[in-house]
Specification:
The chain has 207 residues and is an alpha+beta fold. It is built from five helices and twelve strands. The chain has two domains: 18-56, no CATH class; 63-204, Alpha-Beta Complex (tt1808, chain A), CATH 3.90.1570.10. The N and C termini lie far apart (64 Å).
Length: 207
């Protein structure tokens, strides 16, 4: 019996369509993006951030991340609206920290006395920011963003970590964040900025 010799199949190199190249050339190179070009992007490209002339695409959120963001938004918005303290928003919505630095916090609060920072296309620096940590954002949420939010004058910064089951609250003191407290399941997280705002950690992660 003679076995037929089978030649290995070599996959052809992918061909980049000329039209794709032309479309890519319509956009600035990384490092050259301006605010005007960033805000001119179609709405379908939201969730992009702008930093040092570069577009940043955060990792896609997970179900746990979104469930936690939803719970945080509902609790905080109900508290703020009941007392007419300001507005609460959630991503995707650009927040311009300073010229050329645009982030999209998971949840943020802007006090009524700072209503001049509300814009149709973007907001100015909030008074309180909450970031929900996911594996792909852990380093940025704990290093880059705290430094940026502190520089922008954000008075309070929350780091909510579903995998660890913790809520950490930082308050701005002399231009840097100081840890107010770290709460875990069975405890109640509290805000220093919003007197009376409390959140049972166990309920936050129940979903």
């Amino acid at each position: 019996m003679t076995l037929a010799r089978v030649r290995p199949t070599i996959a052809p190199r992918p061909i980049i369509a000329p039209m794709t190249v032309k479309v890519a050339q319509l956009f600035p190179r990384q490092g050259d993006w301006t605010e005007a070009e960033y805000f001119a992007l179609p709405e379908t490209n939201r969730y992009l951030e702008l930093s040092e002339g570069k577009l940043i695409m955060p990792p896609h959120p997970t179900n746990t991340h979104q469930a936690t963001v939803g719970a945080l938004y509902r609790w905080l918005d109900e508290f703020v609206q009941a007392r007419n303290l300001g507005v609460v928003r959630l991503a995707p919505l650009p927040v311009r920290l300073w010229a050329g630095k645009v982030r999209e916090p998971d949840v943020f609060f802007l006090a009524r006395e700072h209503s001049d920072r509300i814009g149709e296309q973007f907001f100015g620096p909030p008074d309180l920011v909450i970031e929900v940590v996911s594996p792909g954002t852990r380093r940025v949420d704990r290093s880059e963003k705290p430094a940026e939010y502190a520089r922008a004058g954000v008075a309070e910064y929350w780091i909510v970590d579903p995998s660890a089951g913790t809520v950490e609250v930082f308050v701005l003191q002399e231009g840097a964040y100081q840890l107010l407290a770290r709460w875990s399941r069975g405890q109640v997280a509290r805000s220093a900025l919003l007197d009376g705002f409390e959140m049972p950690v166990e309920q936050l992660f129940a979903g």
